[in-house]
Amino acid sequence: MHMIIVGCGRVGSTLAKELSSEGHDVVIIDRDATAFRRVGENFTGKTITGIGFDRGVLTSAGITADSAVMAVTSGDNSNILIARVARELFGVSNVVARIYDPRRAAIYERLGISTVATVAWTSNRIRQTILPHESEPEWSDPSSTFQLVERRVTASLAGTTIEKTEANIVLLHRVSSTEVPTSSTVLQQDDVIHILATAQDIAAFDAQLSGTATSHNGGHS
Rounded to an integer, what distance in angstroms lies between the CA atom of residue 187 and that of residue 155? Predict the structure, then answer.
């Protein structure tokens, strides 16, 4: 996947090194060229010196609607502007912004922009948002039969009732409210859901999320 990271601080450089080492096409942007020392000499991605919300800079970074954009600079305003430019000018849906002010975060979530707080696990949280299918389960039982995972609903699954999905959705967060859904609950794009199921059922659900599922098995009763 083509990854664009804006901000080469601790979080940005960590993401850049991890994602690049996993084979992703990574471009990292920072207005300070000296910041790129954090990614080290072995970094195989591309570095661009510039302002992350500048349309020309993002174009130079190879941004397309299929890119993933992570705005992790030290400023809330910059991060949100970067996220909005990516979504509104380039049609990128896979966008996440780091936000320091939790009051702002709720507002931007309503705009469909995923946000993460400035906590120790920020880089892991961003990876979970950008690459949900590769994230580690939040919990598994001692036998590793069942797993609890978090997913964000994509356009492919929006409008589908929970009973027609391939996994057991136990919790749903939408805008500023969280609820235990029923089988007739209709999923909306950008809903954040928690699934408790077997790895096989989670994989089937992930296929629905990505739009690659060929059929539905009727879900769980």
Answer: 10
